[in-house]
Amino acid sequence: METKELLLNEITKVPNEIHQSIMRFILDYIYKFNFVKEVAVEDINEYSSYKFTKEDIIISLQLFCLLKNSPLEAKFYFYENEETELLYLTKKEVREARNNGYFIHPQNKNQYSLDIYGKNILLNFETIQ
Amino acid sequence: MIHLNDINNVPSHYHTVIDRTLIEDWNSFLSALYKDLLLIIKEIEADRASAIKDEDNITDSIRRGLRLLNWIATHDTMEGGHVDLTVELANYKWKAEAKLNDGAKYLCDAFEQIDVYTMAKDKETGFLIYNFNKNMKLSIERFEEMASNLSDREIIFEKFGEDTFTNKSQFKHSSGFFINIKYFWINLYHHQRTSKKNIV
User: Fold this and answer.
1) Position B69 in a domain
2) Is residue B60 one of the residues assigned to a domain?
3) B171 within a domain of the structure (yes/no)
4) Which residues of chain B have pLDDT under 50?
5) Chain B window 39-58: which residues touch A at a Cβ cutoff of 8 Å?
6) Which domain holds residue B159?
7) Mean per-residue pLDDT, A49-74
8) In a domain, B26, yes or no
9) Measured between CA atoms, how close is A43 to chain B, in angstroms?
10) ipTM for this prediction
11) Residue B2 contacts A, CB cutoff 8 Å
């Protein structure tokens, strides 16, 4: 079976029908625009003709990343301020941050409070090239 | 890109959304699953006055709760043996046995069922115990004493968690390998008031 069919098959197992519908749009979008490196909530919102809420699209993107052989990956980044570069945070680092209330800056290795800097952590959905 | 704070504002899906995204191995899968499972158990215990003393009914309530939180949960499947509850996500699958607390012997019989549907490669399985007895502490002690004396299983229980009636034990599978069992004692006992109106 083709990967797309396998993914469609996986999508049918998702319990919520709205999320299933959105995930089909995500799949179509990725296969139609196979050059894209990332998928934003607004991309899917526009592609699905604004039929769904932003919250449901976020959940669906995350569920999509968890499908077997998913072509999409959730990645976390941190920026200290508008002028600094985006720094990649591993899932393990974000998990530990949620458990401990702080995370270690990837470069200077200082502890950063999640309460203060949590707003500087971004989630991006990137295609696996 | 989405700010983590935007996701935190997603109503009622907070735990689901963040923890689900952070799943990347068996332990992070279990951590996210158990967090949601404990939320559902808390809800069921809070509404224990309306709980029906029926294994399938309670397991189905848990299954529905899990599905509402976007877990692929199924009740009563056949996988080498009858499995009461199966939860899947990504490449991970967790199976659980569900039993009413009808005494230590009845609970210990579950180990044979667990042995049938688990495989040596399974790292951890669940055991949901629905308690309607007043003295749950005594039930736990009797069960753990009897289970610990099953010589072929080599079961050693860990202490309970601080805030929940959950603990773990190792379990010697018939393949000779050890797997973990995570126990969830769900307390559904409620005091039933008797009406004195008709007493002369």
Assistant:
1) yes
2) yes
3) yes
4) 12-14, 200
5) none
6) 4-187
7) 92
8) yes
9) 11
10) 0.79
11) yes
